[in-house]
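Researcher: Next sequence.
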Amino acid sequence: MQLRRPTRPYGFRPGRGAHQALDQVGRVVCTRPTGWILEIDITAYFDTIVREQLMEMIEKRVSDDSVLRLIRKWIQVGVIEEGRLLMSETGTGQGQPISPLLANAYLHYVLDEWFEEVVKPRLKGEAHEIRFADDAILCFEHKEDAEKVKEALSKRFGKFGLALHPEKTRLVEFGRYAARNAKKQGKKPQTFDFLGFTHMCARSRKGKFTVHVKTIGKRLRRGLKAIAEWCQQHRHEPVDAQQKTLNAKLRGHYQYYGRPTNCRSLRQFYRSVRRIWKQGLSRRTRGRWLTWERYDKILRQHPLLLPRIMHSWRTGSTA
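Model: Next structure:
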């Protein structure tokens, strides 16, 4: 019997980044019989990898002793914190160039291969895995399958020193019939978070089921907090220099979060940055509060980058 090919993970691989993973979410949910989503959150993943088990996995593909010795040295290197060298008996050591590769290899055997070769053949309906590094979701046709896998997943991870976060790992009803079922129960349709976006059941302009996304509130607040701290620290710099840096920050935000249907969150981020910058400039006027009229003149001379969608719809995501 020919073995099934495990799902190839996204993240830290050429041409398979976060937005390819997000596109795949739309394709699977909109074009396959999906009714339930299992959000997977691993507690302190990089710090809890069991090194000996990791090396056993690496040895399945690497036979060169010198390379294996080098990998062992890499994962056993400690970290310097507040001038002290801290050593650990588990984990791969975040920050090392090789850590993402090793972490991907670990979950390949712990999750991907197991899910494809052991779990899926025993399910009643379809199931799909979408994983970016240690952030993953499992999509199921039937709730019964999803509940069984959720229970088995906890035991599976325990064998490899990993633990699911009890609050962030959750099963939600999500798919083309989820909104209708929620309405019958007098509830709001459930949502799930993946790669910085909250995913919601929605309808396209033609009335077809689709998936809409918005920036996770916590991510939005964190980004604005960083902007406010920067403006506070650099408020005495020339206005044109501040504008240049703020536009670079806005551009970076739009490049990641500028996905279709996320226009409202982008506009909220832009308006908040504009307000934060006004507050920062006001603090250097020695008691003279910067009016909106004067601030509008500054913005005309030094405009902030307007929100923009940087990613197009993908086939299947607007089914």
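Model: The two ends are 35 Å apart (CA to CA). The chain has eleven helices and nine strands.
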